[in-house]
Amino acid sequence: MTMRPLPSNLKHINLILAAGGNLAGRYPLRTLVLIFSLAAILFPFLTALSISEGIKLQSKISVDEGADFYVSGDSAGSAAPLPLSSVDRFRGIDEIDRIVPRIVGRAYLQERTVAIVGMPGGAVPESILIDGGRPIQNKGEVIVGSTLSRRYGLHPGVKFYMPINRWKRFTVAGVFSSRCSIWSSSLIYMSLDDAGELFRMKGMATDLLIYAKPRQSPVVSVYLQNENQKDPPFRIQSRDLVNSFFQKGFESRAGVFTVFYLAAFALAIPLIFILTGLGWTERRREIGTLKAVGWQTLDVMQVAFWENVYVSVLSACLALAAAYVWIHALNGFMIAQFFVAEPGLMPDFPVPARFVPVPAFLAFLLALALTMTGSLYNTWRMAATLPAETLR
Amino acid sequence: MGGKKGASLRGSLASSGFKLTIAAAAAACVAVVLMALDSSKNGSFSDMSAMGLFQRTVGGLGMGSAATPAWNLLHYDPRLQSVDDSNMWPVAGGYPYSPSAVSTAAGIRELAREDLEIIRVGP
Fold first, then answer.
1. For A65, left (φ over 0), alpha (ψ -120 to 50), or beta?
2. 8 Å CB contact of A360 and B31
3. Last residue of a domain, one of A179, A205, A231
4. Which chain A residues touch B113 with a CB distance below 8 Å?
5. A45 is in which domain, residue-wise?
6. Is B105–A52 a contact, with Cβ atoms under 8 angstroms apart?
7. Which of A28, A156, A285, A380 is the most buried (most CB within 10 A)?
């Protein structure tokens, strides 16, 4: 009676189970250390990319909901305020829907830098304010960001002033919901007149927001460029230019971060493997035994490959779960400040993050490539050697 | 006896391997569920609506990975100030100490504009 060889797929399943058995049954401690070490290395990678994706989503909303053109003064290559009468230079352009003057500046509130925004009338929808507040109704009333409200006790009804102009007193009318975006957290919103008084620039605006009628942006762009030939010159930014800031700011930085991370990772892991030589003596003997009982080199390599797949899947998933919990449950405690400037040790706003499949899959590939680099060559060298020599 | 022991060891390894396979599959499922949860959370109507309303109210504000306009406005919103003047500070080695310049989530630098190109008019 002749023995029939195992069907090919059954053999592969057996090799996969053998790989799993090796990891969980024979070297459970080593496997756990390896999975946790890899997860610890992948954790900042996934956290950084998810925060980057989260901020990118909020930035996209900012660009989409913003004006079609931003016009400011030009002072020797830098942005400068311009008089409100500049609006008259664009009055005759029929393709323009509306022009809104705005003041955006920065000031100190105790030791913290805050953004000041002044819009005509200070209109604000009540739905983006937290309960207990109301929109601006009177002169001197402001809406403050959630971080400022919590940190300095600026609740509705509280009066305060800023060092930039001690004579200008404000009353908090409402507080922005922390869901608005990260940029609302340290913001003080007021009417254009109040902002002009605060910065002592009445009758001026830092920029004009120009909204074109539907599908008229290209025409408005030509008119604006023509108007810019006259004195004084303007600094004009179209939505396209703003979009290019957006693309370059996020994609190049995320790309550069990934490349640096890959380089550091690629150098570190094989080094650790080479320096420690963890478990290789026992592994050598095991491979020699397998070869002696009739295993092929390819079978040994396949088991090593599946071991790496198990470790990579588990470590990538563990890193993703840890990053998810750290950002959503702990709100990026201690870690957010490495990726977002000035959030404080415990951010008062929800740290923006998006866990998308590509970085997670990249983390798995990263772990796989590096565990392969660290183990496959050594395994092949041992498997290709005669068992008598390996077992010596 | 030895045969029984060997069979038991093989059985135990196969059983451990099966358990680890289940664990890896479960971990992958958990990862997919977390990403799906995150997607529904980020795309929730109330949050997107609040962000959209806020941005319409202020005329579009904020683009970079900075919660405040510390040091300069570029990293907070390049629409307000496209020049990174914190790089001009006389720091040895040219390292920008601006907290927003070193954040890793996004890096916004001044973009060259067409009208700043040098146009050669002579031979």
1. alpha
2. yes
3. A205
4. 241
5. 8-61+246-390
6. yes
7. A156
